[in-house]
Interferon-related developmental regulator 1
Amino acid sequence: GGQPRNVQPFSDEDASLETMSHCSGFSDPASFTEDVPEVDEEATQEDLEYKLKGFIDLTLDKSAKTRQAALESLKNAFSSKILYEFIMERRMTLTDSIERCMKKGKSDEQCAAAGLACLLCVQMGSGIESEEIFKTLGPVLKKIVCDGTASIQARQACATCLGVCCFIVTDDIMELYSTMECLENIFTKAYQRDRDTNGVSSTHSTVLHISALLAWTLLLTICPMNEVKKKIEMHLHKLPSLLSCEDLNMRIAAGETLALLFELARETDADFFYEDMDILTEKLRALATDGNKHRAKVDKRKQRSVFRDVLRAVEERDFPTEMVKFGPERMYIDCWVKKQTYDTFKEILGSGMQYHLQSNDFLRNVFELGPPVMLDAATLKTMKISRFERHLYNSAAFKARTKARSKCRDKRADVGEFF
């Protein structure tokens, strides 16, 4: 390869060219301060597009490091801004670049290319354009996922990308089944490993099994009910074996998938009965109260928190509703299907999730949020809080908190009451 070029990565400052950064200004009304100067939006948009064109060109560079840096910069831009029109004009060029990087690149470059492919489909939404992208990239993704000689990291990234892109396109039902079968062939190997009498744990491949399982679970949420029934019959008796896996993330992935399968099973059949319910609930209760000393405290805390919710879902058909705030809007996550979908897209978009929930038509459609809420200048002005007011509020809150904690920590306070 040639000498790597000095690529200036897409940064938070670039993302805020339209007063929008990874932490969107619209996500936090308080971030609009009175002393922000007016910005020439047209000029900044041209500047941004000029930079992005440069990154697209660099994805064809001879140097692998330069190509990877360009892919990462494009990922940052696509996750933090809506660039539909810009991408629409260059979608074929971007698709060709991603395909080339996946076929010819090494592990890190393939991971970056797979991540960019996800974001490309998220930006384009569920139209014909995304179908064309998936028709080109789908076979390449499947080939890497099933290639035992490829790196685990690349296969893991491609498994996630395959699930997400198929979820977005979802027009051809046979393609959906084919993709799910490809992912099943990967994560079902974890069942076989669990039955291995030698008890050898190949940890390096566990991350791939987890990604394939989560991607498959995402696709299961959009399957017709008759197919859901078949998959539940096929996997509901095998998944509990993964709860004994040494890897915490695999135990959590298996537990959350079980909760989702029970939720779907009860939707399809109100009288659904699971034969080994007592054995399963005993396993889940043990994980929800796990106190093994050889495990890290953080891991135990996380595991107990997740499996308390999973146990409630399996035993009591209950889900702890969560609320997500973004700008002036609120979204309630009130079922495992919604949680699985939200967690997947949050993993892909990172800190840009709130901005996309506000502005991305596809995501708003997935979560049934309706068209984007347009705020006029007057509304934004009423939502603004000056920097000085925020400072006063924070100072007062800090003082009150300190006083409250000091009383609790003062050993001399009310000593007589205990005697």
